[in-house]
Amino acid sequence: MSKLTEAIRFTIDRAARLLTGAKKRKYLAEITSAFFEGNTRQAERELGWGRATIEKGLRELATGIECVDNYSARGNKLTEEKLPHLAQDIRELVDPHSQIDPKFQTRFVYTRITAKAVRQALIEVKGYRDDELPHQNTIGQILNRLGYRLRRVQKTKPQKKIPETDAILPMSERPIKRLMRLKNR
To answer: Radius of gyration (Cα) for the chain, nearest Å?
Structure first.
């Protein structure tokens, strides 16, 4: 094993970081063969690379057969893929409570129903079990992916007092607080 200076280590490590996939594994295997006589443990200790990756690269280098990386198979699948009818059931529940953007500036549909209410309706109306449905946050994300935008429902504002109010309500039916204010003047 030859001694590596800091400058050489930096250059080797930088080159390794720029590569990906099979090219990176081949590069790691070539460096391990040249500087560490194929000893993956020494390469791991000296350069901080993963021993399993180096071993895979050495096998690829020896056989000439490149391993194919299946990155698309990694990770968690979308809930719509796990429960294929979920998207359609959500649409059926949400469409009656939705409206298009009144200014036609976006293609999104605004809905007044909450993600929590959608989840509850899926259980009560569509017959889903509580443990098979995702969390209400995930339901909200599904609604966004389906093109719905959740908006807070504006609470009703009280009407301003109009002069006819005194004529409509007799003095006996008016709120007591108002009477107290009038007495204190």
So the answer is: 33
